[in-house]
Amino acid sequence: MLKEYKTVSEVVGPLMAVEGVEGVKFDELVEVQLQTGEIRHGQVLEVNRDKAMVQIFEGPSGINIKDTKVRFRGKPLSLDVSEDMVGRVFSGMGEPKDGGPEIIPEKSLDVNGQAINPIARDYPDEFIQTGISAIDHLNTLVRGQKLPVFSGSGLPHKELAAQIARQAAVKNSDEKFAVVFAAMGVTFDEADFFMEDFRKTGAIDRSVMFINLADDPAIERIATPKMALTTAEYLAFEKDMHVLVIMTDMTYYCEALREISAARREVPGRRGYPGYLYTNLSTIYERAGRLIGKKGSVTQIPILSMPEDDITHPIPDLTGYITEGQIILSRDLNNQGFKPPINVLPSLSRLKDKGTGEGKTRKDHAPTMNQLFAAYAKGIEAKELAVVLGESALSETDKLYVEFTKRFEEDYINQGFYTNRSIEETLTLGWELLSILPRTELKRIKSELIEEFMPEGE
Amino acid sequence: MKKGNIVKVSGPLVMAEGMEHANIQDLCYVGDMRLVGEIIEMRYDVASIQVYEETSGVGPGEPVETTGEALSVELGPGIVSQMFDGIQRPLDSFKEQTNSNYLIRGVNISSLDREKKWAFKATKKVGDVVEPGDIVGTVQETKVIEHRILVPHGVQGTLTALADGDYSLEDVVFKVDTEDGEKELTMLQRWPVRRGRPFKKKLNPDKPMLTGQRVIDTFFPITKGGAAAVPGPFGAGKTVVQHQIAKFSDVDLVVYVGCGERGNEMTDVLNEFPELVDPNTGESLMERTILIANTSNMPVAAREASIYTGITIAEYFRDMGYSVAIMADSTSRWAEALREMSGRLEEMPGDEGYPAYLGSRIAEYYERAGRIQTFGSDEREGSITAIGAVSPPGGDTSEPVTQNTLRVVKVFWALDSSLAQKRHFPSVNWLTSYSLYLDDVGKFMDQELDTGWAEMVQHSMNILQEESELQEIVRLVGLESLSEKDRLTMLVAQSLREDYLQQNAFDDIDTFTSRTKQYYMLDLILSFEEEAREAMRLGAYYKEILEGTSDLRDRIARSRSIPEDNLEKITQIKTDMKELIHQIVAEGGMTQNA
Ligand SMILES: Nc1ncnc2c1ncn2[C@@H]1O[C@H](COP(=O)(O)OP(=O)(O)OP(=O)(O)O)[C@@H](O)[C@H]1O
Ligand SMILES: Nc1ncnc2c1ncn2[C@@H]1O[C@H](COP(=O)(O)OP(=O)(O)O)[C@@H](O)[C@H]1O
Ligand SMILES: [Mg+2]
Ligand SMILES: [Mg+2]
Fold first, then answer.
1. Which of A73, B50, B112, B402 has CB atoms 3.0–4.6 Å from B301's, for a disulfide?
2. Structural domain contains residue A359
């Protein structure tokens, strides 16, 4: 029924030009049938009169220009969804990959999603306790937030992400929740680490996994996060679940985009990435959130490795401009053996202010947070000064700051990947550390709070 | 209407042939879904159209129909308190009409409510001769905004009819007998967004726009009619600064354009503003706020249009004689939208892929700010203060958007990530920021406050600059090497930084500081310096002052939390401080004599 074209005129990298086409629409799904009978999927990137430019997700290898048949499906790339997806493993294109049965679809959804009307958004303000002090207290995660982890090669982002997935809980809540996991271009080991961890904790029965590994087709990675988010939205907004989406590694997603852009000979932006990288990433990250009148939520923890640990690289840079904060891992802390090696000063949660405080966590949350940040910043400076001029050059106060900083890194940050601290435990620890400093240094905390919470006998 | 045919679709760019009848900048309906677009280029009969909605599913052969009219905004009662998208579609009615949480396509919706009746009060009478810009009547649009109905441009003559009572937007409320016959006029006007609304003349913007933010009002002030840029890397505080200004600045009306930024940030404003009380009027902030939301994931072409939609609305209220502030967060995303369209048009790229006309577009935008005398016989004055966030890649401000912006704005609030990381907020770097309005504002404040304000500000800035030089020395050879005097300078500078420049936007009291309180606070810190210096001249040691005043300095630090209606507490600290330091001198004298 669908018209079949055998008019492929060009294959350049992941792109294919098909000529003499009729009625082709921008963005529509394409089926490419190789001479071997193998079916690949594509998407229309541009249509100019009777010529369509198609991006092939599974890549061009083995395509024969003369014998390849192309069908335009008249609909965008879609995913069949149903609640039975929970507990299953799929490829980066959404095909079952675990030997299980095909999904009997409840509906078929356009994976590109649609922009949420800002009026329909419900501002995320529900505290998620991850059990990690450096997050809960200092860079608080809330339901519906998009909070990426900026990592680097060899840093333990997967341990951190797995710890969050394992420990994340919302106070006084017994609602349904699920984990959607998207792997893009990562090694088998990394994907397997997550699966193993999910299996051990039983989380696997609550998760949906989309796996595109390092040796899977690169362009498929462009579709993978969209598959994951389409599933997440379906579970959150139609099945009332709280969904945590972990996406790793966004860097490979961006590289796939760069490959397409280069093949199209577009004017490159910074470091060869396309000028529209910001807009493109936003169509992924902005799919996190809550909607008024809906019970569920989509919380995103994208993971990306910063090339050469460079935070000004376009991928972390543009991500930081879109997401609601970032958790940054530090090679230095990692080398010192601190787990998790979270670099709290440049880390940030933009949504912490409405998710914390009286009735959510505790009224001393924000003031102690501000004070810890200020003290840690000052302590690091004092430490640096001591390195240059010697310990003796420090004032008495500065020496206390150095002591504070040591304890802060060793006890507060370095809690390990398997310690689950309640927010109260974290706050208590925070006060204990602050008690090292003279009271007059605690300018960020109101005196009444100091009276109420400061441990006795400092 | 004549139709053309689509020949090419590439993302937000659609090309259609058979369009020889259309004009550049015409608005058109694209494809079977009738998506809204604008013609940006013509070659022979082929029009290049930027489409304000997602184009997936659109293809060659589908029709394009031009409206023959440029992209325009609707102006009239019903604008204030609304949230619109980049092409002025009201997002609440959008949600209602579509019954969807998403921005689905091809929805035709009028910008302003046609049904609603407004109480129109005539302010002229039949027989009066009117000219463009004259106010013929008013509508109390919100509790704080009196919407003034102006005689449109190009209309001049004698009023032949003037209504008074409840009318909707399309009812005729006045008639003017002009040279070209009688004109029937309503409360509704339209204006093409890419054309600035005319005015009689520009005036020097020399009166401060107070924002309640200490580092801004005191050190880097902006004026009514001025223009400012806020560049900074992500997380530096651009959005918070703009939200704070939107909340607290002493203008009549605020237009906030969320241009390619986060959806939740618009939701935040939408939730928070109605609850917040405007310190200047005592009414809800939403009563004077207009929001334009074109978030990052909304169509990129509409993002390009959004700042023009915003500033045209701002001009309209300016023309009524109001002071308006417009914020755009972020102009970099607007520039990127421009770059994306330019790339798809295969134009010659300039610096970093931006089109060669980037600089002139930025300048044109900021030129629409200013303090002006409006049209109309009553010589009204209005102003637009334009504040734009800039998001430089990697925080490096040598890039084209920042550089082109700095060429046209007079205030530069440089946000600094190292300050932000220390949670020194607002992270305005006091050494690199500047305001070219500082002198004008200083003079004005000296008159208003009848004090040496300008001098206090200059002195404080000198201390901060001196501190940065002293810090260099400390870093090299240690604190020990500093003289007593220099140590005091460091101490005062620390107080200026931590107790004055830092201001917590999320603290109920600290979030806003009135001009008077700013004066009290700065005076307190500088008086401490003066007393301490005098004490040291009289023989007190720095250490004695440092140790003897630690509780007192703690009180100085906490003076930010003193409520506006209790400022005598600050005076009390000042009195206590003098007494204490005199005591230190007296006692110090004794130890020395012994
Ligand atoms: N707000 C700031 N802006 C720029 N640099 C800062 C700021 N705050 C601190 N620093 C940097 O931190 C270092 C010292 O800061 P700190 O606040 O500890 O100084 P201080 O308060 O004068 O120290 P002390 O109280 O021990 O005399 C300096 O190198 C300075 O450059
Ligand atoms: N004046 C302030 N007081 C307290 N916190 C602030 C202030 N300004 C910024 N912040 C903090 O910094 C974060 C980032 O600020 P934001 O304005 O969103 O940055 P940007 O727009 O530059 O990316 C905010 O979420 C908030 O936590
Ligand atoms: Mg210090
Ligand atoms: Mg921002």
1. B50
2. no
pLDDT in tens, A146-176: 999 999 999 999 999 999 989 988 877 778 8
Q: Is the peptide bond before B426 cis (omega within 30 degrees of 0)?
A: yes
Domain boundary among A44, A75, A106: A75
pLDDT of residue B591 exceeding 70, the answer is no
Q: Give the CATH class of B201-436.
A: alpha beta
Contacts of A26 in chain B (CB under 8 A): 9-11, 55-59
- Give the three-class secondary structure for B94: helix
Q: How far apart are CA A309 and CA B225, in angstroms?
A: 43
| CATH of span B113-187 | 2.40.50.100
Does A293 share its domain with A230? yes
Return the pLDDT at B590: 46
Please write the tens of the pLDDT for every residue from B323-374. Answer: 999 999 999 999 999 998 888 888 888 888 899 999 999 999 999 999 999 9
Domain end call among A329, A354, A379: A354
Contacts of A50 in chain B (CB under 8 A): 60
Joined tokens for residue B584: 């230190």
DSSP B31: T
Residue among A355, A286, A370 nearest A128 (CA): A355
How many domains would you assign to chain A? 3
Please indicate if the annotation marks B233 as binding a ligand.
yes
Residue in chain B closest to A374 (alpha carbons) equals: B422
- Does B292 score more than 90 pLDDT? yes
Ordered by start, the domain boundaries in chain B are 2-70, 113-187, 201-436, 451-593
Alpha helices in A307-446 (DSSP H): 314-322, 331-335, 352-355, 365-389, 396-407, 423-434
Residue A179: closest CA among A151, A139, A206, A145: A206
Write the pLDDT tens digit of every residue in A80-116: 999 999 999 999 999 999 999 999 999 999 999 999 9
Amino acid A458: pLDDT: 46
Q: Which residues of A touch B52 (CB under 8 A)?
A: none
Q: Is the CB of B494 under 6 A from ligand 1?
A: yes
> What pLDDT, on a 0 to 100 scale, did the predictor assign at position B477?
84
Q: How far is the CA of B494 from the centre of ligand 1 (A)?
A: 7
Kindly indicate the confidence band of residue B589, based on its pLDDT and cuts at 50, 70 and 90.
Answer: low
Confidence of residue B81 (pLDDT cuts 50, 70, 90): very high
- Domain B451-593 coded CATH 1.10.1140.10: yes
Chain A contact present for B268, CB below 8 A:
yes
Q: Is A422 helix (H, G, I), strand (E, B) or coil?
A: coil
Q: Is the ipTM of this complex over 0.90?
A: yes
Whether residue B593 has pLDDT greater than 50:
no
Q: Which of A182-196, B190-204, B579-593 has the lowest mean pLDDT?
A: B579-593
User: Domain of A115?
Assistant: 79-354
Q: Which of B343, B352, B417 sits opposite A266 (nearest CB)?
A: B343
Give domain status of residue A388, yes or no.
Answer: yes
Residue B1 pLDDT greater than 70, yes or no: no
**Residue linked to tokens 């079977």:** B32
The verdict on the CB of residue B237 being under 6 Å from ligand 2 is: yes
- The CATH architecture annotation of domain B2-70 reads Beta Barrel (2.40)
pLDDT of B497 > 80? The answer is: yes
Flag whether residue A78 sits within 8 Å of chain B, measured between CB atoms.
no
Query: Shortest CA distance to A299 belongs to which of A351, A362, A368?
Result: A351
| Closest C-alpha to ligand 1, atom 6 | B419
Which residue ranges of chain A lie beneath pLDDT 50? Answer: 458
Q: Please tell me the distance between residue A178's alpha carbon and the centre of ligand 1 in angstroms.
A: 46
Spell out where A232-368 has E strands. Answer: 242-248, 297-305, 325-328, 348-349
Any idea of the CA torsion for A222, A228, A233, A235, to the nearest 10 degrees? Answer: 160
Any A CB within 8 A of B350 CB:
no
Which residues 293-322 of B are in CB contact (within 8 Å) with A? 293, 295-300
Please answer yes or no on whether A325 and B293 come within 8 Å at the CB atom: no
The reply to whether B2-70 and B113-187 are identical in fold is no
